[in-house]
Write the structure tokens for this entry.
Amino acid sequence: MSTTTEESPAAPDSTTKERSGFSEGEDVLFQHKDGRFYLGTIVEVDLVAEQCLIKFGDNTESWSSF
């Protein structure tokens, strides 16, 4: 008779960094400081700074925190 044991995943701690859930090429809605939402595409994700660089249809870019 054989038994198998499943190891539970390690619990996150202060050194564990979860993925942002954002990826390059993803379309997102960006809320500008004017209160309006603008459609853009993520061109870069900075996990350390927790922000994404978003490019808009008029070829402007803006960093957004997540």
